[in-house]
Specification:
mainly beta; Immunoglobulin-like; 7 domains; five-stranded mixed sheet; 55 strands; elongated; cell adhesion; transmembrane helix
Length: 934
């Protein structure tokens, strides 16, 4: 039991209780509340009055206890979604007289005793396989007969397999029910699957919740896919007191786009329609016309709400619902009147507000009047604008407030319309248009159009030369949109720029890129509003280069510059490197070098872009001397600028072979690093020691066999190649020295002075010719030759046999060299000398050389015709290794390696190991030992 009002006794009672259920104690309640106080309750009796509407539902005992007289059902006693109660009039009697009548209000509480129910347990809907995603099929909704809002509130969900392409859609109708539909999520394929089974589960919000299930069979085909649609969702009609029954009150018409039975519409009252309303009105099921069934009392103003459902004859049937409001009126309906008063000053329908107005601020008062009665006098108003909101202050009174922040820069005027409409049939509507001007406030900070400004300008321009434009926007009006610019330097240096009030940057002086290439600073901008707003941004100005600087030499550092160059055969072609610089940049600093004087012999050349000075041809001994070379360096700018310098180069030419691994002198500004010198010296010492030890071992071993060797030479008339090989070992030569050399004997010389040309055979299989002076290497034969006439032939000397040749002259380190001198691939003309041919060889026969010891095919070098010595011919005969020859023929000295492990090789006096390389790193050739005769 719970009390609500002070003047009415009331009780709450749940429906569906058994007959005779206790409801409450009236005597106790009125005594506790002071409604009726009696000291002796035994003298008081209670009884219910028979004429009360709720009398038959309840029973009151004499002691004042209230019981149910029957089982209560809220759904049959009361309307949907309204408070369900019954009034019981109870008389209080003291002894024989009535004292007072008490009104007892019994509120019947709805319980969740009804589950949501569908009209059918199973329906069939169809989808065409041609339908695309989004097609919806309407299905009937569930109905819960409970009266309570929670117990009758229904939620829906679709139960299906995960791979089934359907979903459930629902929307709220005017009558509070839900419009349900099955939505196709993707296109169907009838050939894959033609039937789907899903369940729609309806669940109320009661406690405990109850559920209803609708089984939906989905067929993939073309079927009824349109539900009837009313022309209006809500019909509002008013009827007068003298309305004729034969005259239709209104026609609730619905259309169905389907054809045949699927498009035929049938009308009926929805279950939500109250029974009393259906008693007064009649619905034509075929046309949707609503007639007055009988005259209803007009003593009070009343409105009847009818729910009309239009269904087609499809399978399953599709339906829709509309609401019809029938009002009884006594006079003609008039339109409502709107009156608006703005807080600010206004002229006609225009007012002003500041853009700084806060959200929720009150800006106008709206008053609406409509003198009609009933539904014709019930007015609703609306204001549609994203910045403003119309709030109700009570019946027919409203206020206009700011809903969102106002920004004048985006919207300077706010135009809106207030519309008011009554609920008559037809409804009367009034609209009034208003405009609000938004006054500016300095609320926008100046904004740069770029996050960083970068400009390019030229050097050497006059002051006031334009640099660039700083673009700043400020949409504020008046002083708030007027801007002032200031340049800010990051350091104390004064910037050579100035900025105008329009944002143009210009120079205050001529710029020099070589002095400063880039300027970085900030630009400060502020508006003149109150309060003032400002902003800063970074500015970079790059000064573009002009060709205003001539290049200059950094080497040679002085003009003229003296340079001594000592040339020898192993010298590299590079002499030195010219270096120059230019303060300009890019193409203006792209330099090229050139010799413009002092190179009459065309001996020197310079690489145009690297500045490397080198020999342009082989250097001869007569090229030695002083050269005054004039160089020019030019940039690539426009106009082109240049610089010149003079290099006094003293060239000294040497034709003497230097010692092995001796470094060639080189003149440059930079000295050789001491660590490099140490490495070269240590390597040279180690190699020299190894060579000396090897030679010593070989000489000692040869001396032990000398007597046997020389006796074999004298006692044998065959060529030396027929002697037995001595049993001694020698250091094997490196393959790079295993190249035979050929000697060409000039037949024009006498027996004591035969000139032999040595010619180097390249191990790479190519002949090499040398150019130089006419001097050649003469080979003096110390022993007379027995042949008559001119002896001509080719003598091939291997690296072992060269030890048998004794030099008669010295080598000059100042030698002209060929392009192959440094690589050890050839001889130069300064590498020639005199040699002695061993005695005892003049009458020997040339021995056939086995093919097994042949290392490489000898390459013969012919003696040129312009030798200083007289010659009668230049015929040569090359020894054939496959036939026996005499000493008159070519002496074939084959290159071989002598080891004790090669018994097939006979000991030869000329096969001592030697270096077959006439480079600056080779030692002078040793003298050939004399072979004693026996």
């Amino acid at each position: 039991m719970e009390k609500i009002f002070t003047n009415i006794t009331w009780f709450k009672h749940k429906e569906a209780q058994i007959l005779g259920t206790y409801v409450g104690d009236i005597a106790l309640d009125i005594n506790s509340r002071g409604i009726f106080v009696s000291r002796d309750l035994s003298l008081i009796s209670f009884s219910r009055l028979q004429k009360s509407k709720g009398s038959r539902l309840f029973n009151v005992t004499k002691t004042g206890k209230l019981y149910t007289n029957q089982i209560l059902d809220a759904e049959s006693l009361c309307k949907y979604n309204s408070e369900c109660f019954r009034m019981v009039d109870v008389a209080i009697q003291k002894e024989e007289s009535f004292v007072k009548i008490i009104e007892v209000k019994v509120i019947i509480k709805d319980i969740n005793d009804n589950r949501p129910e569908f009209q059918e347990n199973q329906i069939n809907i169809k989808f065409s396989e041609d339908y695309s995603k989004g097609v919806t099929r309407t299905i009937p909704n569930a109905i819960d007969k409970d009266m309570g809002s929670e117990n009758s509130e229904i939620t829906y969900k679709l139960k299906k397999n995960r791979d089934e392409p359907f979903s459930l859609s629902y929307s709220r109708k005017e009558d509070g029910t839900t419009q349900l539909g099955i939505v196709l999520e993707k296109k169907l394929d009838r050939e894959v699957k033609d039937t789907y089974n899903v369940q729609v589960i309806a669940r109320d919000e009661g406690y405990p919740p109850k559920e209803g299930v609708l089984n939906v069979e989905i067929s993939v085909t073309d079927e009824n896919d349109n539900s009837p649609i009313f022309t209006q969702s809500v019909y509002n009609v008013s009827i007068s007191e003298n309305h004729q029954k034969s005259q239709a009150v209104i026609i609730a018409s619905a259309k169905d786009l389907d054809s045949g039975k699927n498009g035929k519409v049938v009308y009926r009252f929805h279950s939500k329609t109250a029974k009393l309303a259906m008693d007064y009105f009649e619905l034509n099921k075929e046309t949707g016309e609503i007639f007055l069934n009988r005259q209803f009392p007009f003593d009070k103003q009343q409105t009847y709400k009818l729910f009309i459902t239009a269904s087609d004859n499809g399978n399953p049937p599709l339906s829709s619902t509309a609401v019809v409001l029938v009002n009884k009126i006594g006079h003609q309906n008039t339109a409502p009147a709107i009156e608006v008063n703005f807080v600010s000053e206004s002229m006609k329908n225009t007012a002003t507000i500041s853009e700084g107005v806060k959200v929720g601020s009150f800006i106008a008062y709206v008053k609406v009047t409509d003198n009609d009665v009933g539904q014709n006098g019930e007015v609703t108003c609306d204001l549609r604008h994203n910045k403003l909101l119309l709030k109700s202050l009570g019946r027919m009174k409203y206020k206009v407030v700011v809903k969102k922040s106002v920004d004048r820069e985006k919207e300077s005027f706010i135009d809106f319309t207030i519309s008011c409409q009554d609920k008559g049939v037809p409804p009367q509507k009034t609209e009034r248009k208003f405009s609000i001007e938004v006054m500016d406030v300095n609320d926008v900070q100046p904004k740069f159009t770029k996050s960083q400004f970068k400009f390019l300008t030229y050097e050497n321009e006059e002051p006031n030369f334009p640099v660039g434009f700083i673009n700043v926007t400020d949409p504020d009006m008046g002083l708030g949109g007027q801007l002032t610019y200031i340049l800010l330097s990051d350091n104390e240096n004064i910037l050579p720029f100035v900025i105008s009030n329009f944002g143009f940057i210009s120079t205050t002086q001529s710029l020099d890129r070589e002095e400063k290439e880039t300027y970085k600073f900030k630009v400060f901008v502020k508006d003149n509003g109150k309060p003032s707003l400002n902003n800063t941004e970074n500015v970079i100005v790059e000064v573009m280069d002009e060709n205003d600087n001539a290049p200059y030499f950094t080497f040679p550092s002085v003009n003229p510059f003296n340079l001594d160059v000592h040339y020898h055969p192993q010298s590299k072609s590079e002499i030195t490197v010219l270096k120059a610089s230019d303060r300009d940049r890019h193409v203006n600093a792209f330099l090229s070098y050139e010799i413009i004087g002092g190179n009459e012999k065309q001996l020197f050349s310079v690489k145009p872009y690297t500045g490397v000075l080198s020999y342009s041809r082989p250097v001869y001994q007569n090229d030695a001397g002083l050269y005054s070379l004039t160089f020019i360096v030019k940039d690539s700018g426009s106009p082109m600028r240049s610089a010149t310098t003079t290099l006094s180069l003293m060239l000294t030419v040497s034709n003497q072979t230097s010692k092995m691994l001796a470094t060639a002198p080189k003149h440059s500004d930079d000295t050789i690093h001491i660590n490099l010198m140490i490495v070269i010296i240590v390597a040279a010492i180690i190699l020299s020691v190894a060579i000396v030890i090897s030679l010593a071992i070989c000489i000692i071993q040869k001396y032990t066999q000398r007597n046997i060797l020389y006796s074999d030479v004298v006692g044998n008339t065959n060529c030396p190649g027929e002697r037995k090989q001595s049993e001694y070992t020698c250091e094997p030569n490196h393959p790079q020295y295993d190249v035979p050399a050929s000697m060409v004997l000039d037949p024009g010389l006498n027996k004591e002075s035969k000139t032999t040309l040595l010619k180097r055979d390249s191990q790479y299989g190519c002949k090499t010719d040398w150019k130089g002076s006419t001097s050649r290497m003469p080979l003096s034969v110390t022993q007379g030759l027995t042949q008559q006439g001119s002896l001509q032939g080719v003598i091939e000397i291997s690296k072992e046999e060269q030890h048998m040749l004794r030099p008669m002259d010295h080598f000059n380190e100042m030698s002209t060299m060929s392009s192959l001198s440094d690589s050890g691939q050839g001889w130069s003309e300064a590498s020639t000398t005199h040699y002695e041919i061993l005695p005892g060889t003049k009458s020997c026969q040339t021995e056939l050389v086995p093919k097994t010891i042949k290392k490489s095919t000898p390459l013969t070098l012919n003696r040129p015709k312009n030798l200083s010595s007289t010659t009668s011919g230049n015929l040569q005969k090359t020894a054939n290794v496959n036939q026996n020859t005499t000493c008159n023929d070519v002496i074939d000295l084959k290159s071989t390696r002598v080891t004790s492990a090669s018994p097939s090789l006979l000991p030869q006096p000329w096969n001592l190991p030697m270096r077959n390389s006439f480079t600056s790193y080779a030692k002078p050739l040793p003298a050939v030992p004399k072979v004693p005769y026996q």
